[in-house]
Write a structure and sequence with these properties.
Radius of gyration: 12 Å
Number of domains: 1
Number of helices: 3
Strand content: under 5%
Order of helices and strands: HHH
Oligomer: single chain
Structural class: mainly alpha
Distance between the termini: 16 Å
Largest sheet: none
């Protein structure tokens, strides 16, 4: 799933994109009282979609790094950075 060939350019405000809302909703599970599992693969995929369509913004990049860390450990975090 992860490709090192993603173009990196500064993005606009991503809050208008449905993918942003989907990532935010998925990550809201972290503070849900029932603690449902976060689908980190979905978070990663949605972040990549946002990067492709909107460019890179700090919030999406942070979420992407968290997803890479959860899926692949420190090597994933390194790739995310």
């Amino acid at each position: 799933m992860f490709s090192r060939n993603l173009p990196v350019h500064a993005g606009q405000d991503p809050r208008a994109w449905s993918e942003y809302t989907q990532v935010r909703d998925e990550l809201s599970k972290l503070t849900h009282p029932a603690r449902p599992d976060v689908d980190w693969r979905k978070v990663e995929q949605l972040c990549v979609t946002l990067f492709r369509h909107n460019g890179t913004d700090l919030q999406t990049a942070a979420w992407f790094c968290c997803a890479r860390l959860q899926r692949s450990g420190l090597s994933g975090l390194s790739e995310g950075l």
